[in-house]
Amino acid sequence: MTKIYDISQTLRNGLPVWPGDTAFDLRRTWQMGPGVPVNVSALTLSTHSGSHADAPFHYDAGGATMEAVDPGLYLGPALVVDARGAGRLITADDVLPQLQDGIVRVLLCTYQHAPQENWDAQFKALDASLIDALAGCGIRLIGTDTPSLDPQDSKTMDAHRAVARHRMAILEGLVLDAVPFGIHELIALPLKIAGADSSPVRAILRSL
Ligand SMILES: N[C@@H](CC(=O)c1ccccc1NC=O)C(=O)O
Ligand SMILES: [Zn+2]
Ligand SMILES: [Zn+2]
Fold first, then answer.
1. Residues flanking ion ligand 3, Cβ below 5 Å
2. Of all protein residues, whose CA lies closest to atom 15 belonging to ligand 1?
3. The pTM is what?
4. Ligand 1 atom 12 nearest Cα
5. How many Cα atoms sit within 13 Å of 95 on the Cβ side?
6. Where does this protein hold Zn(2+) 2 (predicted)?
7. Which of 87, 115, 163, 179 gets the highest tally of CB atoms within 10 A of its CB?
8. What is the DSSP-derived secondary structure letter of residue 71?
9. Please, are residues 46 and 18 in contact by the beta-carbon 8 Å criterion?
10. In the chain, where are the structural domains located?
11. Taking 90 as the threshold, does the pLDDT of residue 172 lie above it?
């Protein structure tokens, strides 16, 4: 039996967002009732809400925006790695021993329980040399259960810049609590939004 793991945060009013960023707001614009046959809503949200894919344009002024990113990057076998024992900067030593041959997508689990009710400013980030090492091993997509690859106070975005150099793809804000470590099929397509620096995704892992 194939097992499906929903690794997405629930988008909802009150969702914790990056400090200072736009709050998530779903507002009913038509309410079903006499003479109104349907419910319809309007959404206001940051492109980096919940589980999302960063487009290169987020961290590279000349980078591609979301509609131009190859959707195939977000579909296919992915290795879920245990990074819970790492320090504030996850290094190659934490991850490389767990890599497996032929894998091009790696998802880092840094939390026992990813916080979904509150914002954790102390989340684990990735050392840029880890990105270089993963690229050297053929990795094309890096996912994490934290809000960013770089620390919240970073102004240099070293990990994102390393990703840009290697033309890799990024998923952030995943929920990997319930997923066994190992290889599963990833399905996490970003919306085809012209000009967007990022998009929310419905991220799923399916047992292989
Ligand atoms: N780099 C973060 C997001 C980020 O930096 C951010 C997201 C929303 C509003 C402001 C942000 N950064 C401001 O310096 C990310 O990778 O999603
Ligand atoms: Zn992001
Ligand atoms: Zn990012």
1. 54, 148
2. 148
3. 0.98
4. 18
5. 31
6. 54, 160, 172
7. 163
8. G
9. yes
10. 4-207
11. yes
The C-alpha atoms of residue 198 and residue 147 are separated, in whole angstroms, by 13
Under 8 Å between Cβ of 65 and 57: yes
Q: Identify which of 128, 137, 36 has the alpha carbon closest to the alpha carbon of residue 91.
A: 128
| 160 in a labelled binding site | yes
- For the question of residue 166 being annotated catalytic, the response is no
Q: Which amino acid is at 173?
A: G
* CA-nearest residue, atom 10 of ligand 1: 21
Q: What percent of the chain has pLDDT over 70?
A: 100
Residue 156: the pLDDT is 98
Mean pLDDT of the chain: 98
**Residue 115 Cα to ligand 1 middle (Å):** 18
Asked if pLDDT for residue 1 goes beyond 90, the answer is: no
Contact predicate 28/41, CB 8 Å = yes
For 9-53, what is each residue's pLDDT tens digit? 999 999 999 999 999 999 999 999 999 999 999 999 999 999 999
Residues 6 or more apart whose CB falls under 8 angstroms from that of 67 comprise 192, 193, 194, 195, 196
CATH of 4-207, one of 2.60.40.420, 2.30.42.10, 1.10.238.10, 3.50.30.50: 3.50.30.50
Burial class from Cβ neighbours inside 10 Å (0-12, 13-18, 19+) for residue 27 reads: exposed
Quick one: which atom of ligand 1 is closest to the CA of 21? Answer: 9
